[in-house]
Design a protein that fits this description.
single chain, about 80 residues, mainly alpha, about 65% helix
């Protein structure tokens, strides 16, 4: 899970300025999606630090969510296609 979190944090544009992220379109809002994903990753980082271990389903869910959000970021040209 730590490896997955590290990869997602590397590949997602979490550091992009908010003014550049907000496209004015609220259908699949990149800003809200990045905020959601960041919160999910922070939650798992906290749980891992506390000694909780994810099961395969939880790892799969985070991976699937990350992939979907990555596709939205591609749609808005925030990441490479």
């Amino acid at each position: 899970m730590r490896g997955l979190i590290k990869q997602v944090r590397k590949d997602m544009p979490f550091d992009i300025p908010e003014a550049n992220v907000c496209t004015g379109q609220c259908n699949g809002c990149p800003k809200k999606l990045l905020d959601y994903l960041d919160a999910e990753l922070e939650d798992w980082e906290y749980q891992l630090d506390a000694g909780d271990l994810p099961d395969f389903g939880e790892i799969k869910r985070i991976a699937k969510t990350s992939k979907k959000i990555y596709k939205v970021m591609q749609k808005y040209d925030f990441v490479d296609k």
